[in-house]
């Protein structure tokens, strides 16, 4: 009986100390605003904007991976979108504490980019948000850092 209690105690300890797996904060509040989120998604689809995300990375100097995160925006007709305010929230899906928010600068021809340092190799999520006046574009992309 003591062995069962000891094993259960160890399992409970590791369960409480491990990663929670929560992918979103304030799920209840976001759930209440679900109809607003659906309307915003419909408006985004009607606008016809699209984005192509790329990360060109290389080994850093021991403190992570450096690279250029770039996003190319086009409208419904394939023309580049200019004069956007673009941010990228970089999220590590399996480790907490490494997230960062980056403001991307306009490079021309609808391309927005910035140099970033990512502390860990592997998969990252980029939550891209672009705004022009009352128009908004929000999308999530996954990319791999070597």
Report what the structure shows.
This protein has 146 residues and is α+β, with helices and mostly antiparallel strands. It has helices at residues 2-17, 27-32, 34-47; strands at residues 50-59, 65-74, 85-91, 100-108, 111-118, 122-132, 135-145. The protein has a seven-stranded antiparallel β-sheet with strand order 1-2-5-4-3-6-7. β1 (50-59) and β2 form a beta hairpin. The protein starts with a helix and ends with a strand. 14% of the residues are buried. The model has no long low-confidence stretch (mean pLDDT 86).
Task: List its salient traits.
alpha+beta; seven-stranded antiparallel beta sheet; 146 residues; 3 helices
Regarding quaternary structure, what we see is single chain
- Topology, number of strands: 7
**Whole-number radius of gyration?**
20 Å
Q: Report the β-strand fraction as a percent range.
A: over 45%
Low-confidence stretches: none
Straight-line distance between termini:
48 Å
The H-and-E topology, N to C, reads as HHHEEEEEEE
> What percentage of residues falls in helices of 4 or more residues?
10-25%
Sheet with most strands: 7 strands, antiparallel
The coarse silhouette is flat
Strand order, sheet with most strands = 1-2-5-4-3-6-7
Calculate the mean pLDDT score and round it.
86
Structural class: alpha+beta
In DSSP terms, counting alpha (H) and pi (I) runs of 4 or more, how many helices? 3
């Amino acid at each position: 009986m003591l062995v069962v209690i000891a094993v259960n105690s160890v399992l409970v300890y590791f369960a409480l100390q491990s990663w929670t797996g929560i992918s979103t904060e304030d799920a209840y509040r976001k759930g209440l605003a679900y109809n607003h989120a659906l309307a915003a998604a419909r408006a985004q689809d009607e606008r016809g904007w699209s984005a192509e995300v790329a990360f060109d990375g290389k080994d850093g100097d021991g403190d992570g991976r450096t690279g250029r995160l770039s996003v190319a925006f086009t409208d419904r007709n394939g023309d580049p979108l200019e004069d956007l305010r673009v941010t990228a929230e970089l999220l590590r899906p399996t480790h907490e504490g490494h997230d960062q928010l980056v403001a991307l600068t306009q490079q021309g021809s609808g391309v927005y980019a910035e140099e970033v340092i990512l502390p860990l190799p592997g998969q990252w999520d980029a939550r891209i948000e672009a705004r022009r006046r009352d128009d908004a574009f929000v999308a999530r992309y996954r990319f791999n850092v070597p």
